[in-house]
Amino acid sequence: MRRFLSALLVVSCTAIIPAAQAVAQARPSAQISENNTTLIADSVTALPDGTLIAEGNVEVLSKGQVLRATKVTFNDRTGALDIEGPIVITNGPNSVILADSAELTDEFRNGLIRSARMVINQKLQIAAAEINRVNDRYTQLHRTVASSCTVCASSPTPLWQVRARRIIHDQQERQLYFEDATLQIGTVPVMYLPRLRLPDPSLRRASGLLVPTLRYTNTIGTGLQIPYFWTLSDSSDITVTPYLTSGGAKTLQLSYRKAYSAGELMVDAAATHDNVMTETRGFFRAVGRFDLPRDFELSFDIGRVSDAGYSRDYGFDDSSTKDSTLDIARYRRDQLISANLTYYAPYFVSTGQTTEARIVGEGEIIQRFTPAIIGGTGEARAFAFGQVRDFTNSGILRDQPRVLLDLNWERSWVGQSGLVGKVRTELGADLYSAGLNSGTTQRQTRILPPVIGAELRFPLAMYTANATHFLEPVAQLVWSQDDPRTDTNEDSLLVELDETNLFQFDRFAGRDRHEQGLRANLGLTWTRTSHLGWSTGVAVGRVISASPHPDAAPSSGLSTELSDWLTTVRLDLANGLQFINRAQLKDDLTVTKNALELAWAGSGWNIASTYTWLAADTAVGRPSDANELLFSSSYNFANNWNADVRWQYDLGAKSSRNAGLGVYYQADCASVNFTLSREFTSATNLQPTTEFGFKVSLDGFGTTPSARRTPSSCQS
Questions:
Q1: What domain range is 531 assigned to?
Q2: Burial of residue 79, with CB atoms counted within 10 A of its CB: 0-12 exposed, 13-18 middle, 19 or more buried
């Protein structure tokens, strides 16, 4: 009965559609099983024995799978499809099979595909003499070659390939099982594996070995890191990384990750036994973030490390230092509420007293508002700060809690002539409570004098036939009473004058000191942009102060009534060459600070060099001139090779600080990274260190391609 209805449907379709309208009308179709397998073709013929023959642009649709072929013969008694190619079978978005001929069941659950090629997730290609489909889950490929490299007529041999007697693809688990596999680089066999299991490219997370890393340092020797990734659930995993070196070092690292509906957690730890120290070395770090009620967010970064050189010796993240932080914050359009607690733990291995704070706590509330009558923008701030030291010398300041209150207001406007004006005022009050080791406590209340300032900017532009000129003079007048200095100064030890803070009311970094008196901040910038693609610019500025702050160091440029001159000269050429010179000069043109930057970005090249010179100043702990050169460069070769180099040299000490070299090969299917670095400087118990790293990755087996990866295509 079913054969009769199918044939009747086909005959009816072909009979009622005139030949002249065949292109515009739907093609003949037939349902060829009870499970909604549909066949569409240019012509469908029903034979008396129950056989359907479809020819011309044939499409068979079954449970989300689509088969396209030249000719399909369906046997109603056996439910088999005899298919002539070229054949394209699409199984969802992640799997495509190309073949010459095939014999399948009507739902593609079982069958044989000949001279086939399977493409998984548009990355991995597997060519096979034949493919067997089993139970709509397993795909068996015989006499196979697998690779994710682009193969062209001009270069038919892929960069790498895996040849295997058989590959089984488990579509449900998304795993690839290789039997008698041989890895070849080009045509050269480099590794034989009787059994191999790898995730297919559509699987984002799968348990198994990750890419190993070969690493060398002169302190611990040559070592191999072999990480194993283990998926615990859809929201958690752990990575176990053993690390063995030729110097006898044994390290085990564990990295645990867990995602929650309202946050995430990462725990990283390592333990090491080596010959560098007799004690066990290691580190622990826990990082997390969680959403709290009322839009608050909790974040923490808790860590301990055994000694100062451990992270560098074993290549761990430098952020796994001895400080631990806990933060709670809420950010809104006009409000900030935050609290922070930091604990500075000593090293496990080292002991000794230190004057640095052991525990530091901070809390802050900032509220922004718009006054109804005077307009502008106002801001109120309350800040609480406290620290605890662990230091036993008598008379040394230990604990110092404080509460700070600030209120400021500013308003700006633009005149019809283009003149930009701004006024600002600030008020503040501080409450200190300083505890000494002798047992005494010093409490001090400080009302900060009001700060009043006004600023005028007059941007001017001129257009000529050859260039565009931009000129902007800026004048800022600020007044405040003398700084009511406290007996202690911990957060305002250094003050610097540079182009980023020229127009700030207060250039001290902290709260213990404030700029004082009447002062004028003056600046002028000029820029010329040529229509030929190059530009040049000059910026000049200085500060005139009636009462220079006595705590400003001579090298700051702010210790006299007339500050040093700030100058910046910039030149950008059309060929990518860039020149920038920043200098701090006295009136007699004596240079106190200078930084020269040269950079060039050309075709494949990136070169940058910085020369820095700072005059000696014992007030800031610089007994001699600082003289340093920093150079870095990178080059992109045309054949997927990249290289970079960096070098830092202390001209005063006539010695290098550090140097590094990296060579990278990034093809469409593989990446090779080689790095070499040398740290020449020593600090505390750190010794000069040489480090070598080597890493090879083959893209296509559940891996994420490198950020440097450039897809390849065949050139016609």
A1: 459-620
A2: middle
